[in-house]
Amino acid sequence: MDADISTSFLAKLADVFEVDATTLQSGLSLAERWDSVAVLATMALIDEQFALTVAPDELTRCTSVTEVLALVDQRVGLRSPGR
Amino acid sequence: MGERLTAAIAAIATHLPVGELTNEDLARELSDWTPEKIFDKTGIRSRRVSAEGECASDLGVAAAQRLFESGVCAPSAVDFLIFCTQTPDYFLPATACTMQTRLGLRTSCGAVDINQGCSGFVYGLALAKSLVEAGTASCVLLVTADTYTKFLHPRDRSVRAIFGDGAAATLVVRSHANEELIGPFVLGTDGRGACQLIVPVGGLRRQPSPETAVAREAEGGNWRSEQNLFMNGPEIFNFTLSTVPLAVEQLLSKSNGGPHGVDYFVFHQANRFMLERLRNKLKIAPEKFCIDLEDCGNTVSSTIPLALERARRGGRITSGHRVMLVGFGVGYSWAAGMIRVSF
């Protein structure tokens, strides 16, 4: 993932969880933080930044921000070139 | 060749129940949310709630009476009533039949109920236009009304923060215009989404029993029974983001014009979050995009006519403007249509 995109994505994701970006990246557990508002806001953010649709249960399985980024990277990688 | 029949919207009148549920009320009941947080997440400060025993038909009759009081037409001129609701008075008869009598419409008036939710107003317009332009009717009263709040469990904040009750009455008449004033339309259905926004029990497929009345804790600490409304918000959100932009694109190409030919966009007022996301994705300027649900919430089939009527009254749209309407949700069902403002 491009470093600028990653930074802006992480900052916005931190807003979703109402923490700062450093806390988010220091291994904060997301397991208990996925309420419906957080799921919706993260889906919207991923759609906005990467034009990707992720399923709600794919997100709620992610227990850390590293796993969210891995999910996005994997889905970006699956896209055919030129799309 | 006979004279071309062109359907046009002649008037819209609305009615909201008196009861109110504010963010302060919700915050008192559901202590971990503040009123401001609820507003930030939904764009809604207050919803209107029907009283016990106050049905969708009562709200619809009040809206229609307001329309008649404006003098736009007499009840006796109406020759077709379409009542769109998902909260009817009875299984049978059709609620529209009881409203025909209550409104003093003539007995030679056609009357049907249609069951659609958030797409219902645009569906109703497509049907009303077809009735008028085929010569089947000349003055169609389209009433939308819903009382979803009666389906909500008191401890299900995921839906109580969103839905409100309300009604609108829209008059569709024959005009002498030389151009299409209602339409074209893009309609769509995907029943695979039926289980994502549903009241599972209460119809004949699954009848109520003591067991189905028991509320259980569900996701996020929300409570509901199978007789209550269930909405899978994230799935509905994904459906909307994947379906609505495509429907908008199809309608633009069908109506021979790009987005610049559209003066104003009135989408189903689901919640501000969803609307902002759609607006962003479709790159529509904020001043051309309606967000108007702060004081009434999501009134299902009536959000579009409520917003249209207010936009007209507030001068955001004026006679001759081309407006795109898009309804989407429960079903899944969606409908997009163009109108030229003629009311």
UniProtKB/TrEMBL annotation, chain A:
<protein>
    <submittedName>
        <fullName>Acyl carrier protein</fullName>
    </submittedName>
</protein>
<dbReference type="InterPro" id="IPR036736">
    <property type="entry name" value="ACP-like_sf"/>
</dbReference>
Automatic annotation (TrEMBL), chain B:
<feature type="domain" description="Beta-ketoacyl-[acyl-carrier-protein] synthase III N-terminal">
    <location>
        <begin position="113"/>
        <end position="191"/>
    </location>
</feature>
<dbReference type="GO" id="GO:0004315">
    <property type="term" value="F:3-oxoacyl-[acyl-carrier-protein] synthase activity"/>
</dbReference>
<dbReference type="GO" id="GO:0006633">
    <property type="term" value="P:fatty acid biosynthetic process"/>
</dbReference>
<dbReference type="InterPro" id="IPR013747">
    <property type="entry name" value="ACP_syn_III_C"/>
</dbReference>
<dbReference type="GO" id="GO:0044550">
    <property type="term" value="P:secondary metabolite biosynthetic process"/>
</dbReference>
<keyword id="KW-0808">Transferase</keyword>
<dbReference type="Pfam" id="PF08545">
    <property type="entry name" value="ACP_syn_III"/>
</dbReference>
<keyword id="KW-0012">Acyltransferase</keyword>
<dbReference type="Pfam" id="PF08541">
    <property type="entry name" value="ACP_syn_III_C"/>
</dbReference>
<dbReference type="InterPro" id="IPR013751">
    <property type="entry name" value="ACP_syn_III_N"/>
</dbReference>
<dbReference type="InterPro" id="IPR016039">
    <property type="entry name" value="Thiolase-like"/>
</dbReference>
<feature type="domain" description="Beta-ketoacyl-[acyl-carrier-protein] synthase III C-terminal">
    <location>
        <begin position="252"/>
        <end position="340"/>
    </location>
</feature>
<protein>
    <submittedName>
        <fullName>Ketoacyl-ACP synthase III</fullName>
    </submittedName>
</protein>
